[in-house]
What we know:
homotetramer; 378 residues; Four Helix Bundle (Hemerythrin (Met), subunit A); three-stranded antiparallel sheet; two-stranded antiparallel sheet
Amino acid sequence: xxxxxxxxxxxxxxxxxxxxxxxxxxxxxxxxxxxxxxxxxxxxxxxxxxxxxxxxxxxxxxxxxxxxxxxxxxxxxxxxxxxxxxxxxxxxxxxxxxxxxxxxxxxxxxxxxxxxxxxxxxxxxxxxxxxxxxxxxxxxxxxxxxxxxxxxxxxxxxxxxxxxxxxxxxxxxxxxxxxxxxxxxxxxxxxxxxxxxxxxxxxxxxxxxxxxxxxxxxxxxxxxxxxxxxxxxxxxxxxxxxxxxxxxxxxxxxxxxxxxxxxxxxxxxxxxxxxxxxxxxxxxxxxxxxxxxxxxxxxxxxxxxxxxxxxxxxxxxxxxxxxxxxxxxxxxxxxxxxxxxxxxxxxxxxxxxxxxxxxxxxxxxxxxxxxxxxxxxx
Amino acid sequence: xxxxxxxxxxxxxxxxxxxxxxxxxxxxxxxxxxxxxxxxxxxxxxxxxxxxxxxxxxxxxxxxxxxxxxxxxxxxxxxxxxxxxxxxxxxxxxxxxxxxxxxxxxxxxxxxxxxxxxxxxxxxxxxxxxxxxxxxxxxxxxxxxxxxxxxxxxxxxxxxxxxxxxxxxxxxxxxxxxxxxxxxxxxxxxxxxxxxxxxxxxxxxxxxxxxxxxxxxxxxxxxxxxxxxxxxxxxxxxxxxxxxxxxxxxxxxxxxxxxxxxxxxxxxxxxxxxxxxxxxxxxxxxxxxxxxxxxxxxxxxxxxxxxxxxxxxxxxxxxxxxxxxxxxxxxxxxxxxxxxxxxxxxxxxxxxxxxxxxxxxxxxxxxxxxxxxxxxxx
Amino acid sequence: xxxxxxxxxxxxxxxxxxxxxxxxxxxxxxxxxxxxxxxxxxxxxxxxxxxxxxxxxxxxxxxxxxxxxxxxxxxxxxxxxxxxxxxxxxxxxxxxxxxxxxxxxxxxxxxxxxxxxxxxxxxxxxxxxxxxxxxxxxxxxxxxxxxxxxxxxxxxxxxxxxxxxxxxxxxxxxxxxxxxxxxxxxxxxxxxxxxxxxxxxxxxxxxxxxxxxxxxxxxxxxxxxxxxxxxxxxxxxxxxxxxxxxxxxxxxxxxxxxxxxxxxxxxxxxxxxxxxxxxxxxxxxxxxxxxxxxxxxxxxxxxxxxxxxxxxxxxxxxxxxxxxxxxxxxxxxxxxxxxxxxxxxxxxxxxxxxxxxxxxxxxxxxxxxxxxxxxxxx
Amino acid sequence: xxxxxxxxxxxxxxxxxxxxxxxxxxxxxxxxxxxxxxxxxxxxxxxxxxxxxxxxxxxxxxxxxxxxxxxxxxxxxxxxxxxxxxxxxxxxxxxxxxxxxxxxxxxxxxxxxxxxxxxxxxxxxxxxxxxxxxxxxxxxxxxxxxxxxxxxxxxxxxxxxxxxxxxxxxxxxxxxxxxxxxxxxxxxxxxxxxxxxxxxxxxxxxxxxxxxxxxxxxxxxxxxxxxxxxxxxxxxxxxxxxxxxxxxxxxxxxxxxxxxxxxxxxxxxxxxxxxxxxxxxxxxxxxxxxxxxxxxxxxxxxxxxxxxxxxxxxxxxxxxxxxxxxxxxxxxxxxxxxxxxxxxxxxxxxxxxxxxxxxxxxxxxxxxxxxxxxxxxx
Lengths: 378, 378, 378, 378
């Protein structure tokens, strides 16, 4: 009897997971749909991976951490794919050098899609037939692997943009999708937060990556934080006041970088005929003064803030400020793939969606963090 | 009257040139026919160019040096192709950095074939309609451009081999084509040449690259030269006697290179299960002891010769020795794309075809050489 | 009357400052006294500065930030020394590239000592005659400059050690000075600290560098911290258990570094005839199992801690733990210039002196930190 | 009786060799006499060796190739000097990395002079007491080693110039020594040479380095060669006509170098207040239009010649032209250490002395050259 009761939730969890699996895996294909075969192969700089590599690596992740351990007698689709598509899991084995991924003609794009299809079939079988005894572990790993694939979807879009932007022909990935009737923009306002001990970190319940745990207390001084991101127009004022020519605004290493690389504007900005244009996934477009500024480095964000008489928030400050709003915004499913101007409702906005936002904090483990054993840490 | 007489030869020259144009251009396509789209895009090391780049560059050469100067009102097929596919003609304009050719997804392979078709149509028109007044110049440039494309066909095969060899999957470019009944091999013999003043360099008449001129006299001491190339078997003896471990055999810079890169065998050789195998265009194959050794650097050729108590010939010695035989051998049109063992007729052999052969001479201009004016020097 | 009262303290402050000036400046000379002229010139790696550079740079600091602004009509000792001996003060002007300091024969060591003497004379004059109106500013700057010179004294000893250790002759900087009767060592114990909000940062009153301010509150979980540093003997256990061969102990970038550089032991350790020896300022000596381990990188400290089932403390934890003890220890004035074993009193020890101690925290500004205006920020 | 007759020449040879030994060894000291201790230690770029290294290396050469083999029971002065001061004799053993010679404080300059004194004493003993049976070998090696030291004297002067020129203080090595009453200069004339087979290479009799042998025949076309080197004034005309801005003058790799390094003038030239000045061993001096141009690279010499409608001579042409004049010129013993204007006698001049002269030939062995066995090849 208890068994029946137990099965019901498992089965509905299972259905949800099967649906999530199908949706996430299909999303990767959708992102790549506009690409020509040639686009899948390119590594336009060392930090970029070819789109086909992302497609294969995320598939290898399922094969290696789910099919191999949980499907009795499972043989890898190809004996060398583990070597080619492992990314950095030292404990799993040696892997192909990251900076040479763009020199791999084979496997072809078609072969990689066949690899995906094969693993998808096997995963559907596994999700349908996994014995109850290992279901929890399977479900946890699938959830992790789907979140991992979503991370790579973000990288896919980022890398595709670089691959297209870097090409002197400045090709477009696809047609532009207009944002809803453009907002008029609004002046930056401030949100106050009082001093005190706060709790941050994952509260449990749903999925989170391990670097969002454990929940812990921090002391924050009173602070205030802007109610929307810095816009292109505001950043242009920094540029036009000589921001890139005055060492007083910059961290020492930032200033060295500015000089070494001749930085004069954010990545992807170009000045032609007296106006700034920027590369988008729909080709070159005029810089829109109301959109959040994007593709700035930590050094540029920090220099802007210093020039403006402010500072970047700490990670804890940002998290406390962000938790007040709903998790809504211009995400992948808006279909725009481009940041939009802040609305003019007056409420704090764009803590989620649109752009990554810099804090001044280094990327360090939370107090009490323990790496889990094993390659996955699940 | 004179005009008619004059036209006849021009017209036959023209027909020959049209035929040569068609044949050479088609050959480039034939070489690439076995490739997947992905293979066309790869730059597996800085010295390699992607196959599609070779196809576009040779086409640009016709467009830039023939269509633009000789077809009134000709507009380039694409305004940026000159920038992308110029290789090194500084005087023509700036060009795309060589070592980044492999980061270009676009133009696609299909677009490049369209570019080739377009230029081929225009070239056929030009060859059919070029006014007599500029025919000599047109014919000279077409002849140069076809020879230039043939050079790139050699590079295409070389680069394709690297692209395939470098891939950990060791894919095959195509099926192997067997050489005719394998020769039994024969011991190396020697050809004597007496001391004296000789003439070398292009004698005129047919096409030659400018670096084969002018014809000039050189004094040579008496020397003797092997009547066939060094074989894999002979080179293996050098390896097995510790050739790669003894600095006494090597030039100073060669020895430094051996140590820095851990050289232990020619490029593409791998030792598996106690036997040497080598990458070919048909995948990995056992090393054939009778075939000429290939893919050795200057340093290795020089070290082998010193170990064997010999030396590399000078360029002049090689040319004098080579002119005694017929220009016959295992060329591209044998379809093998792989060196074959020497025949056992006893005549000097393989001065032409099969493999590039090292001399000890640096690559320097012949006495009296004058670079012609202009980018082409035609 | 008030004036007299006011003068008294100024004058006594002044006397103290004059004495401090003389003592600190003399200390730099004492550290260099055992050097040969040649030792002063060497930059044994990019991060090392030649000893003579330290001597000149600290002198330029007084000249640039005190003599030039406060001595009317002061002319720099040499017009190019500002360029040569400015270190990184972008806002003061361009400076000589850091990594080429070891290629400067001139000025000679003797000239640099003359430069020091000149500036010392001028500084004594300034301290004797500075008008009351600017005394506070002068005193603050002198205090900063003396602390700056003391920092460079620490670098001097560090760099001298590298210069001597790096030399294949392994010369000794000076005779060894024995530590007092060697302690027997004691097992590592733990100090408990309860959770709560703590205050850290400079409390004001005496001198502190600006990166020690402002005082601020932090929340700390309960933690415990070792009552003495890790010893050579403990670190050897990590090494002997294969610590340098197991990626599971290391941060990803740490493991990459271990492999790239072939790390097998702390810097300066060498294995000869079955025993570990280490370079000291008195030449090569056997590794003493009871001394604190030194010359380990962040990656090594972190890997050791993980192997031992512990973690590095955060900066705030370390500061809270350290404030319980007296600021006593094996400093420069012990004359040993080498860490000593922990005593066996049982009290927490060596929070000060002996060795730098790693925390897991990045080097980031304290909350509320504001860089002061100007080059100095005084 | 025959023996007595034989002894006489040996003894006079011996006296000459002893005198040569003393003179050459003293010359190295004289060149270094104006140096400060600091100057001896500097490696201002990878190709430069510190002066003290030259002094020690040339001494090691005597120790290793003469004292060790010929003095029974000889113990090296220091067990590690072989490692430190061997330069590139792989077959003798491993050696200290060349590019780190400037990071060696020890041995000190004084110790190196003691090393020289020690070896000089031992060498005098050897020359006085070497048994007749090995005299020929000893004499040949001493002759080689003295020539080797003279080569290093040339490097010493070259390297000292770089060490001083590179220093922002532009110190002077010593006072200037005026050339004799400055010549008025004369226009460049030409010497004709007819076509034919010539002999070049060492004729035997006195000492020559092995790369000057064997004597051999070459065929030369008729050519003419300038009767004096190109002057600074002539080279300035090339510069002022835009020579450094026009790729048509340059070899492809030369042009790339010009752009990468921003070349605008010969090494050591600086433009200040509208005039060109150049670094000399006596500090910065105005460029003298009549002096031969110096410190130009192969690429610059080649570009100048092409701009002037000429070409560089081949090595064989230069040798044939040079053998017509007396071996006279502005050598080390003129004491000037700086090139002088051509005299105005009208005779070909400056084939010897003043400046190194570029040919277009690569540095390759003469026909028939055989490296001798062993490290020395004596």
